[in-house]
Amino acid sequence: MSTALARYFKLAERDTTARTEVLGGATTFATMAYIVVVNPAILAFAGLPVGPSTVATILVAVFGCLLMGLYANRPIAVAPYMGENAFIAFGLTAITIAGVPVTWEQRLGAVFVAGVAFLVITLVGVRAWLARAVSPSLKHSFAAGIGLFLALVGLYETRVVASFVEGVPAAAVQAAGSPLLGRPAVPLKIGNLHDTKVLLAVGGFLLTAVLLTHRVKGALLLGIAATAAAGYALGHGAAPHAVVALPFTGDYSLAPIALKLDVSGVLTLGFLPVLLTLFLMSFLDTLGTLVAVGAAGDMLDEDGNFPDPQKPMLVDAAACVFASVVGSSTSGAYIESATGVKEGARTGLAAVVTGLLFAVTLFFIPLVQPLQTMAYAYGPALVAVGVLMMGAVRRIEFDDLTEAVPAFVTIVMVVFTYNIANGLTAGLVAWPVLKVLVGRGREVRPGAAVLGLMGLSYYVFGLTH
Fold first, then answer.
1. Which residues lie closer than 8 Å to 83 by C-beta, 6 or more apart?
2. Nearest to 91 by CA among 415, 324, 456, 309
3. Of all residues in the chain, what percent carry a pLDDT higher than 70?
4. Which end of the chain has fewer CB within 10 Å, C or N?
């Protein structure tokens, strides 16, 4: 059996062993298991029921990891994306199509259409062509902007940061002679630091930061669990009603969300900006993850490119389609895979191990489900992910203003408009326009021009918010 595994995964060819791969896969699982708690908690804001959403999250991770390991033979885990889930839950909240709010069924339909588009453009080679056309500085600004966005979501959900009008009588901010609220002097303020839950969130973040500093495996998940335990001891949480339960039954049945996607409802001109945003976010996320993981394991070629990216890109496209069918958000390659690679993982066996460990968690959902209702416990993890993603800022070329300005525009538009789509599209438009205006139009590749026009269409259609 071990010989067959060695041959199938080419262990000797990649200078690794089965033991090393198992360790690497387990390490990756430990660092990204928090997604089982956080993803359903975020998608709940879009209207997806938590129990079924948890099962769907795990199934997507199992499917994606096994496919990545068995088909692409890469040590890269796949699961629902952070950032994209926030866009699905929060970024579409204020959007209406023909005066009607976007339903969660339509959001899943958008994920499906984006996934099919990924498959098609990957098979014909367009996906890699477009990705290569994006400026490295702009790619890094996407990561930094989304990181800050996640941090703001975490701070707001934990009430460390609050709306300026929170706790203020409506009359105090009401426009004179109007039933509508006026614009507050400032949009946000610090939360109530005498609130025990706020203090728990602050403490949870500090604990997570300490664990991350010491490179403790599973730091995010441990931080969530420890903060939740402290909150429970102080009377701010519920204990699990069980430890083990059968998936696909009762509260954990997929029936409420599986196959509920509304595809026909998103195949309209009004949904183009939504589809465009999912498209841009996902294909850039995957590209950045492949490069980052490849760098962690010295797997990049002499030009700094991830070798043979076609199979991993096909896997994340297939996982995206699968996610929409079972009822979850856009999925793809996870940057946490770098932790397993740093432990020596070099083949798909590591990804298979990660997938199998996720499969085991299907039977322990009751143990983690209370965490999904404790914003003070999972919110600090969002802020910590934001900290980790902010490291991308160091790779932005701030000495070249034609690179720095579009990157800056991307970041501030994501955060200050509370909308990921606004930032990504603004950066894609600003980059080629600025290059042309300063006389450096020759640097604009055809792919960058195409993406710029796609970004411009987002604003022309007038669905920004």
1. 146, 149, 150, 281, 285, 420
2. 415
3. 86
4. N
Q: Distance between CA atoms of 254 and 123, rounded to whole angstroms?
A: 31
**pLDDT, position 440:** 94
Q: Give CA angle at 79 (77, 81), nearest 5°.
A: 120
Q: Considering the chain, what is the average pLDDT of its residues?
A: 82
Report yes or no on whether pTM surpasses 0.70: yes
> What pLDDT does residue 200 have?
95
Using the predicted structure, report yes or no on whether residue 430 has a pLDDT greater than 90. yes
> Could you give the CA distance from residue 134 to residue 137 in angstroms, rounded to a whole number?
8
Contacts 24+ apart (CB under 8 A), 120-124: 121/283, 122/310, 122/313, 122/314, 122/317, 123/314
| Half-sphere exposure in the Cβ direction for 387 (13 Å, CA) | 16
3-state SS record for the chain: CHHHHHHHHCCCCCCCCHHHHHHHHHHHHHHHCCHHHHHHHHHHHHCCCHHHHHHHHHHHHHHHHHHHHHHHCCCCCEEECCCHHHHHHHHCCCCEECCEECCHHHHHHHHHHHHHHHHHHHHCCHHHHHHHHCCHHHHHHHHHHHHHHHHHHHHHHCCCEEECCCCCCHHHHECCCCCCECCCCCCEEECCCCCHHHHHHHHHHHHHHHHHHCCCCCHHHHHHHHHHHHHHHCCCCCCCCCCCCCCCCHHHCCCCCCCCCCCHHHCCHHHHHHHHHHHHHHHHHHHHHHHHHHHHCCCCCCCCCCCCCHHHHHHHHHHHHHHHHHCCCCEEECCCHHHHHHCCCCCHHHHHHHHHHHHHHHHHHHHHHHHHHCHHHHHHHHHHHHHHHHHHHHHCCCCCHHHHHHHHHHHHHHHHCCCHHHHHHHHHHHHHHHHHHCCCHHHCCHHHHHHHHHHHHHHHCCCCC
Check: CB of residue 25 under 8 Å from CB of residue 333.
no
Burial string for 414-438 (b: 16+ CB within 10 Å, else e) reads bbeebbbbbbbbbbbbbbbbbbbee
**Angstrom distance (rounded) from CA 314 to CA 340:** 22
The long-range contacts involving 438-443, CB below 8 angstroms and separated by at least 24 positions, are: 438/402, 440/402
pLDDT of residue 206: 96
d(Cα 35, Cα 221) in Å, to the nearest integer? 9
Name which residue leads in pLDDT, 94 or 250: 250
Reading the block at residue 270, the tokens are 């009004």
- Give the tens place of pLDDT for each residue, 269-314: 777 777 777 777 676 667 666 766 666 566 666 555 667 777 888 8
Beta strand pairing call for 100-101 and 161-163: unpaired
